[in-house]
Amino acid sequence: MSVKLHALCLLLVLLCLSWAEDQTCLTSASNCDECIQSGPECAWCTAPKSHIRCHTLKELRRAGCRKRHMYNPQGRLQVVMNDSSIKPSIAVAMFIQPQELSLRLRPGVSHSFPLTFTMPTDQPVTELTMDTSHVPAGLNITFSSIVIGNPLVVQVTVEAARCPSESDDLTQKQNRTGPWSVLITPRGFSLSVKMEITLECQCDCTRNREKNSPGCSGLGDLVCGQCECQQPYAGQQCQRDSESFISPNEDFCRSGPKASVCSGRGKCMEGFCECESRVNPKERYSGQYCECSNFDCPYHNSSICGGRGKCECGECICDDDWTGEDCGCSMETASCMAKNQNLCSNNGMCHCGKCICEPPFTGPTCEDCPVCQGTCRQHVECVECRVFGTGAMKDRCDQECGYLTVTLVQTKDEMPPPGESIASCKMRSSDDYCFFYYTFSSTPSGGEASVVRAKECPHGL
């Protein structure tokens, strides 16, 4: 196979098998492998008691599956060899970097990497024709030049269309999912780049089989959060003998020896709970023993889960950017950003969109510290230029000190008394030996200073 490189991307099509855009997850998948093969956006929930196994990440999350229980492989690209020590100072032969890569491909999820071709110094830069060794059916490779010149940089994109099926023609003596070695060679040169490619068509969690798991009543193996029951047992927890006659025994419908049948919220029918209906059709009981509900969750602002999440089995599953047991805590941090572009001025933590300051810092973004020595110094130049027209800020006072609101008073007795949020300052003027007095406190718009109109100067000045 070969393809010429131009400034625009040219596609190497070895087999035109593409993923349909309207592909949906196989929600009825019986196992993890079947689920992840049904689409690149499909994930499997490994939570032992999950009632939804195969869906998109968003829908699994809305159904109550925790992030740690979601299996959603995206493949992996790893550079195995990228030797630069053999590159001569003056190139007399072509040199390629990297020399070897390892790719694990989930069908429908592409991986890209750059190849750098350094041409011999005595050879003009021309178009390259790329040859590849045998490529398995269903594997697509795209080449595009992203830097023209010497060195030439080529972007390589590799994608598998699908996992092979049992009916595929496998005349080549190779594994159905790899690993395969594919070489990329610029025509007319002897150097090649090696790609070791393996398809991800099986879930890693299938290797962690818990035999005779207590979660499967000791009568089956727990695989990817799901029970594979021994014959003749069946049920979500292998709790039912499928070969026995239908027993009137209601023990199958109890979560424990002394527990109520179907948690007192349903009837036991043929060893399985049928949960009772609610007057409100939006409210429902669920779970193997009707132990869950979608309405018995914390309220915030008179709404279940604050109106910002779903109630699943008595627990709020919050929408994006919200957290807390009642979804009442915002994860937004813009309101905690101080003027120095640090969260809570690095003097506290942002919680639910508000700063919780570490003592002795105060203020909306923890920028105030009346008892700290730096508070008076932090604002003295702006106070001086705003009131007396002197100091280091006098030429840019309007630009730098607009945040400060100034109130003039006649004597120190008229200034606000110092306290937890008000700093009392006595500072020396920059152009003489006189002192001036002011207080400072933070406001939502910046700060407020109360300044004594007249300076206090030593006798004779």
Automatic annotation (TrEMBL):
Compartments where found: Membrane
One example of a Gene Ontology biological process annotation: integrin-mediated signaling pathway
Predominant place of localization: membrane
Bilayer topology term: Single-pass type I membrane protein
Name of this chain's protein: Integrin beta subunit tail domain-containing protein
Assigned GO CC terms: cell surface; focal adhesion; integrin complex
SUPFAM superfamilies named among the record's database cross-references: EGF/Laminin, Integrin beta tail domain, Integrin domains, Plexin repeat
One MF annotation (Gene Ontology) recorded for this entry: integrin binding
Signal peptide range in chain numbering: 1-20
SMART domains (UniProt xref): Integrin_B_tail
Family stated for the protein in its record: Belongs to the integrin beta chain family.
Matching InterPro entries: EGF_extracell, EGF_integrin_1, EGF_integrin_2, Integrin_beta_N, Integrin_bsu, Integrin_bsu_tail, Integrin_bsu_tail_dom_sf, Integrin_dom_sf
Originating organism: Eleginops maclovinus (Patagonian blennie)
UniProt keywords, alphabetically: Calcium, Cell adhesion, Disulfide bond, EGF-like domain, Glycoprotein, Integrin, Magnesium, Membrane, Metal-binding, Repeat, Signal, Transmembrane, Transmembrane helix
Record-annotated Integrin beta subunit tail domain positions: 376-459
